[in-house]
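Researcher: Predict the fold of MBL fold metallo-hydrolase.
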Amino acid sequence: MAPPPAVAIAPGVFRIPTIGSWAVNSFALLDDDGSVTLVDTGVERAPARIVAGLAALGKHPADVQRIVLTHAHPDHAGGAREMATRTGAPVAVHSGDAGYAGEGTSPPNDRSSVSGRLFARVQNGRFPPVPVAEELADGQVLPVAGGLRVVATPGHSPGHVSLLHEPTRTLITGDAIFNVLGIRYSPRVFCTDFRMSKRTAHVLGELEYDRAGFTHGPEIVDGAREAVRTFLARTPR
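Model: Structure tokens for MBL fold metallo-hydrolase follow.
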């Protein structure tokens, strides 16, 4: 069975699966004026799935007014250049990842383990470079659907961010944590600094939200904060 083109998480907040039913996700936030903000753009071939997801919401690429990237990895920023071209929307990413997005290359991965050093030898980490129009900062509130707060959660990449949509109390985790066979940290080999990623993920337990959307894994629409805090409480920083 084909995955749905878009899944409602909260009023005006939708998950758009770009690989499988939830293996890699983008998100669309709808404003009252009809405009759309995209969060993450999947791999390079993902724009077709994103456009289909928008169509299911009655939206067109021309409705997209902003593209926000949680970080500069190929499965999150790979489709950014094409979506920016199709929509004419500016791309925003945290200052720590802006240079990597502009160059179309992933930040270095954690080489503190044998697997990390081996992965560094074989990974490509390239994607189409995308011009960055805005560099995000921790605590910044974007004028998106009533307020989208930038929450710095570095470690997975130097400028990794999670996002909190305050009006609907919906958290978009980025890769700070996954929801694949349960809530878990990103694998070490995908992180720039795995220890930092684990440490900063605990910020998510201090925020106020009811729902969580994961860029890898299905959303949690009931008791999300409790589920995240339970996971964090049993794992060391």
